[in-house]
Predict the 3D structure of the following.
Amino acid sequence: MTVGHPPLTTDRSSPSALRPERFGPPTRRLAGFIGLLAFVLNAIAVGVPRPWRDEAATHMANERTLPELWSMLDRIDAVHGSYYLLIRVWQHQFGESILSLRMLSVLALAVSAALMTLLGAELFDRATALWAGLGYALLPALTGAASEARSYALAAALVTAAMLAFRLATRRQGYLWWVCYAVLAAASIYVFLYAALAYVVLAVMLIWLPARARLVACVSTVVAAALTVPLLLRVSGQAAQVSWLEDYHYGPPQIIADAFWGQVDWLAWVGVGLSLVAVGHAVRLWKEPALRAPVVWVLGWLVLPSVILCTVGAFAAVYHPRYLAFSVPALALVIGLLLSRLSGRRLTAALVVYAVACLPPLVTSRLPEAKPTVAAAIAVLAENSRPGDGLYIVRYDRHALSWSFPDAVRQLNNVGADTGDGWRAEELKQPSRPVRKIADRLNSVQRVWIFADKGWRLPETEAAFARLGFHPVRTLTVDPGYPVTLVLLERTG
């Protein structure tokens, strides 16, 4: 009998009996194979989609010196500071191309798919481990995170690693595993603050731990929380950073489909149907005493963070579907547990449903227009502009445009650019200088394009240019992917 959770071995006469496989050579080989498969599948064409503004933010953060970055994080984006520092080290070795930056997320997914295989074997059996690991490699919300130069795939990987370390610590009662759990839990929170919600379920798990393990688990969790205090102090004054969420309203489709299946369409609802069947199956396993602890663990990891974030989101702008990427690994486990109990035609049918829900999104997520970029607006601008035309960017960032669409932007004269470096220590994005302060730059310019992100402050900007002798002759609103208003101004008089 194990020292931690109740033994997972049930009566072998039961057709539903599960036997934990631990870390034997066959399980380790399976984990290695699934990790390699996950890497190959998610690395294919990962550099093809055009980068969007969040990924450009990752690039821009590391265009600074370390003192500038540290000063900026004191004012904005501290929640992503650890990820930026890690990316800084990564791009020093592998370059700053979008392919290079995304490959860190691909690697994180591959490693965590292997870890999920080990966790599935630890909690249940090798069949569950197989399907859970493959699910981790294919679930759209995770493959989408793997195609992003952002922290979501890495946060999910660290949470998965921390959960595995917690399981090993409770079973083996070795202090080294408790240290690993505390460090990994703290690291996951540093990479993405909301990952802290994943560990709420561990408070419930204390019920199944013996007194000695319960005490050490509490101490380890307190240590992990204490390690994150510097981050909490720094981000506490930056709540306005997510004020943009006030413009978005999320209902059941986003909470259920988008958060866990990466989109809201009929394919996602096919996945939701499979998810509900898998959750129902897991709930029925409550009747097997040896499975109660791991089932509660997995279901809590899957559900509790979403419930907490949605509840808080009813009073404050804190919710976005992709913020729950660290909960999606639990979905891989729940579905893996279902598939491990099926056979014959039922297993075949379930696998077909799973493939229908997962494979098309994987393919479409690697297409050039997969992300919400301003590519359509840039195409219109490139078609209608002339070399040497002025470009005045409202709200968007010129570095984001020049990095994402260098060919189209290079031929234009960014008349609003702040040529100093002071902004680097205070803001992530370079603001355009007020129009009234760039009159001298416009002396030799006859045409100026206003690039207004979502039409932001367009009337005021046009009025400011009118006072300098520029008047609109053409207005173009481009919506596909990301709404932008382009206004062509020409000098009159």
About this structure: The longest strand covers residues 470-478.
